[in-house]
Amino acid sequence: MNATDPLLRVEGLRKHYVSPRQWFSRPRPSVQAVDGVSFTVARSETLSLVGESGCGKTTTAKSVMRLIEPTAGSVLLDGENLLKLSPAQMRQRRSDVQIIFQDPYASLSPRLRAGEIVAEPLRNFRRHSAAERDERIRWLFSKVGLRPEAIDKYPHEFSGGQRQRLGIARALALQPKLIICDEPVSALDVSVQAQVVNLLMDLQAEFGIAYLFVAHDLSVVRHISHRVAVMYLGRIVELADRETLFNAPRHPYTQILLSAVPVPNPRTPTRRMLLQGDPPSPANPPPGCRFHTRCPLAQPVCKEQTPPLSTRKNPSSPGGQGEHLVACHFR
To answer: Degrees (nearest 5) of the Cα angle 244, 312, 44?
Structure first.
């Protein structure tokens, strides 16, 4: 692998759920949770997936590490297609891809002490001797801001922020190349969210970890991301670097999402763009552009032709050549 090649390359990822057929009933349409998603994540980069609930963010993230088995596509980690690995081979590669779950309590076993939770991946992969494991556990606790005496506590004895720090220490234990963050701060208080996000950024700067960050809080996304991909109904509709996407969004859906972000200063003039109607069902998505049923710019061509995710010139970058991908006929 060339050092300049992306760490992760996802191409044409699909996850369709097929409902079981009942006796004497018609076959039900498949639910297209993720339908043809492609993106890359560079080393030491944070790529965020954003969009309204049900757009396929978490399904995409879990499909990348095969917690959910994709229907089609390819997921290349360091050039190796994870979807073609046997269960035994995939188990070995899991040390390179770890995950931080959304709920910092449900993801921790209530029967294990904190030290045992962090030591579990080290034991599973037979890393280090018992003495070396104990030393590494204490080191991990210090890195995520937990006191050494907390090793003997149970999860219910921690606050929500401390439990999420414990989940981060567990994800960090095997020195992964990529960590999937599935809305890791959405269940925390705002003040604690800032602490956890800053911790993730510090760990990335120190260890060169890449993050695939799933979130719906655009303020958090703007703070932590290098690039942002906007999803709608199972597809990416816009992908750009953080500053370009927040300062010059091009897709109508992205513009509407950003207009809903609260502004701290009540005297600052804001222009809210309302999103009309409800999102279509992923079991019966509309033809053409999936956003055309709610889009203020929709034309007849939008109902007939699916716009490709293609490159647009970015005037804010040197020479206007920065990568800015948009799936829209008119943007």
So the answer is: 50
